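pls design
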């Protein structure tokens, strides 16, 4: 994705774009796939370095929980899936589960609870809740590239490659030194965009259908009247038929390595 397109998405959604030197924009892009246990999403990190020059990193990641936690959620309400949105200053550098440095949640975020334990990612069958859930941004394995998500995410945003994550942490350290220990994480859910586009498409089809029916009724009103008269040639006679002689007939129901780009 180009920087221009990313800026346009953030602007369209009313999200903040940070433009001071080395002030990080951290954006997760959730793919359209609903197949769990894959690192099929991306985390984009971009920042201005001077003048009109920007640096842009793309890292493979998951924004969804792994199959293990979908089947065995930590909470009775179901496994947490981070909801789309911009979480302003909701993260800071800290220890993930007391084990290693990562971006850890410091303010409430909103999650969707996938509660049916079927190992399929669901985004409409659960309730949303907002709070402190430990939805951190961390890595999978300590070294190399991890092939499957499994236990590595119970709702966290997780880097596939340990080297990519080390690069990410170095950028966060620079940001912290300049602007303090607070970070904004934005999640763009292309599944939500797809669902919204489908709703718009269905509404458009329905509207066009009504317009088409109205046009046909006006365009062929004489033919329609003639057809009706062929079924009811004597309208006065039909009025004398008792109502109980009628019967109703209902109608049938219708990479492994982060990509880096210097942008000017």
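designed seq:
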């Amino acid at each position: 994705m180009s920087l221009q397109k990313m800026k346009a998405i953030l602007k369209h959604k009313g999200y903040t774009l940070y433009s001071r030197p080395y002030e990080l924009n951290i954006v997760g892009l959730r793919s359209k796939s609903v197949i769990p246990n894959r690192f099929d999403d991306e985390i984009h990190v971009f920042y201005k370095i001077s003048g009109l020059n920007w640096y842009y990193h793309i890292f493979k990641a998951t924004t969804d929980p792994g199959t293990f936690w979908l089947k065995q959620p930590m909470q009775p309400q179901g496994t947490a899936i981070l909801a789309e949105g911009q979480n302003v200053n909701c993260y800071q550098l800290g220890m993930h589960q007391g084990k290693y440095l990562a971006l850890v949640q410091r303010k409430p975020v909103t999650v969707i609870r996938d509660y049916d334990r079927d190992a399929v990612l669901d985004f409409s069958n659960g309730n949303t809740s907002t709070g402190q859930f430990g939805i951190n941004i961390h890595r999978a394995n300590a070294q190399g590239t991890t092939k499957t998500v499994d236990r590595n995410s119970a709702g966290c945003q997780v880097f596939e490659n340990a080297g990519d994550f080390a690069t990410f942490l170095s950028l966060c350290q620079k940001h912290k030194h300049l602007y303090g220990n607070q970070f904004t994480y934005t999640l763009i859910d292309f599944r939500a965009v797809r669902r919204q586009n489908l709703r718009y498409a269905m509404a458009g089809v329905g509207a066009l259908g009504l317009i088409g029916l109205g046009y046909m009724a006006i365009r062929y009103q004489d033919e329609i009247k003639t057809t009706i008269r062929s079924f009811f040639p004597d309208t006065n006679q039909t009025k004398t038929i008792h109502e109980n002689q009628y019967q109703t007939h209902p109608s049938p129901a219708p990479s492994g390595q982060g990509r880096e780009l210097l942008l000017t």
